[in-house]
Amino acid sequence: MKDNSLSNILNQHDSNEQIDGQLYTLNLGPTHPATHGIFQNVLTMDGERILHAEQTVGYIHRAFEKISERRNYAQITTLTDRMNYCSAPINNIGWHMTVEKLIGVKVPKRVDYMRVILMELARIGDHLICNGVTGMDAGAITGLTYMFIERERIYDMYEQICGARMTTNMGRIGGFERDFTPKFHELLKDFLKTFPARFQEFCNLLERNRIFMDRTIGAGAISAERALSYGFTGPNLRACGVDYDVRVAEPYSSYEDFDFIIPVGTSGDTYDRFMVRQQEIWESLKIINQAYDNLPEGPFHADVPEFYLPEKADVYKKMEALIYHFKIVMGETDVPKGEVYHAVEGGNGELGFYLVSDGGRAPYRLHFRRPCFIYYQAYPEMITGSVISDAIVTMCSMNVIAGELDA
């Protein structure tokens, strides 16, 4: 039987002291609490110092892009929300807009604003978790527990839209399955009224906290040039001082109607990434308030019966609705040939969909541009020369979501 007594552990520690000066290999992950996901990094260590790092991917084994070639366009929605599951509605809506670009559908203004509200709520939820966990990894777990409460309030609103909370399958090609419910309006108004004060408490806890700043300033820094060479986008690029944001560079869903700024950092380190996300939460709140105050009247979906599932009651009573329902569910609707690329500003950066159609019931080829996959390539460079504790907060602040690594 293995001797786990304290004296034996201390003896082993003494023997390890004798190999000081030698390098050793450390597996950080794939299932380690501090990696917050299934990530493996093989580190060559000199004491606490990381001399070399090599990351591996492929632990999720999902192959969404290939699976999509066997699914009709509506069914692919359920694959997209399993990539960055912290902000699933953005993935869903981004996919719907890609298909709408292919088939040439213009959605009503109300749909645009509804989408903006939901995507910004998703961005807030995503950033809350990332920054809350960054604080936890630096030793302050209290902020995370409080921010989980706020994220739950956002999930309650998702539930009113689609009946799900995390993997949302939200919306439809052409709009939404239903309009905002009275309960959703109630929850959103309460959130917009009470969240700012609660979030300010979180800001007060960490933003000028001496310990947190010492743990994060200078950790995992990357220059703007190196970030661009890797293909960084989103908060991780903006933390380096580059003000690129898809919502402004290539406006979609009426983002050009709203007044907001793009927060940027200077040094591209963990603290800057944290602060950019903090400021983006305030900007998202500003956008939601504008969109909700000016929410247009009108239909909540486009008039595209070939792609938009009819009301269930109509399916039972109207022959035309029954035919469309059958064709959509069986994937027999004609889709034009062509190729399109559409990108949205995801919680983590530019989330793009490159779609090639040969006119069949499913995409001929579909590629997801997943920002986390790009960030993860730079991780070894960002932690080489640092210590383990810096590597942990660096990974967290990059917000690498395992679901985006091997789509």
Report on the structure:
This protein has 407 residues and is mainly α. It is built from 16 helices and 8 strands. A 3-stranded antiparallel beta sheet has the order 1-4-5, with helices on one face. A 3-stranded antiparallel beta sheet has the order 6-7-8. Strands 2-3 form a two-stranded antiparallel ribbon. β6 and β7 (350-357) form a beta hairpin. α5 packs antiparallel against α16 (388-398) and α12 (270-293) runs parallel beside α16. The relative contact order is 0.18. The model is unreliable at 13-18 (pLDDT under 50).
Write the layout of secondary structure elements.
Elements: H1 6-17, E1 24-28, E2 31-32, E3 37-38, E4 40-46, E5 49-56, H2 64-68, H3 77-80, H4 88-103, H5 109-137, H6 142-162, H7 182-206, H8 210-216, H9 224-230, H10 234-238, H11 246-249, H12 270-293, H13 312-317, H14 319-329, E6 338-345, E7 350-357, E8 365-369, H15 371-383, H16 388-398
Antiparallel strand pairs: 1-4, 2-3, 4-5, 6-7, 7-8
Helix pairs in contact: 4-5, 5-6, 5-12, 5-16, 6-7, 12-16, 15-16
Termini gap: 44 Å
Give the assembly state of these chains: single chain
Radius of gyration: 23 Å
SSE topology string: HEEEEEHHHHHHHHHHHHHEEEHH
Give the proportion of residues in helices: 40-55%
Described by the principal axes of the CA atoms, the overall outline is globular
Number of helices: 16
Average pLDDT, to the nearest integer? 91
Number of strands: 8
Strand content bin: 5-15%
What's the story with the biggest beta sheet? 3 strands, antiparallel
Would you tell me the structural class of the helices and strands? Answer: mainly alpha
Order of the strands making up the biggest sheet: 1-4-5
The parts where pLDDT drops under 50 for at least 5 residues are: 13-18
